Amino acid sequence: QEQLVESGGGSVQAGGSLRLSCAASAALYTRYCMGWFRQIPRKEQRERVATIHPSGASTFYHASVEGRFTISRDNAENTVHLHMGALRPEDTAIYYCVAMRYCTGDYSDVRSWGQGTQVTVSS
Predict the structure, then answer these.
(1) Which helix (H) or strand (E) segment is 60 a member of?
(2) Average of per-residue pLDDT across 2-8
């Protein structure tokens, strides 16, 4: 069964940190790029925030989070983590864990979506 289960998220003040986690079924975790999309309020499309290659050797970030967010894999737990630092109000969004065919792909390349978790950053 293909499954992505997210945890973490919540509310934080600007400048603070949060960590998101995503536990994946082995079928997804070992074969696909893992990562996160987000749906920002009043924006039409979800945007790709960060992804990591199945090998863990390569990571990819949206320009707006480069240097502030770090994505990592825990192979013992089939879990992907997103450490979010120096958070800004514009990071407020619903964050979705994804398994996707290409690490630099778009919405159409997503194989599986998590249920989403809310992140709210207040100024």
Answers:
(1) strand 59-61
(2) 93
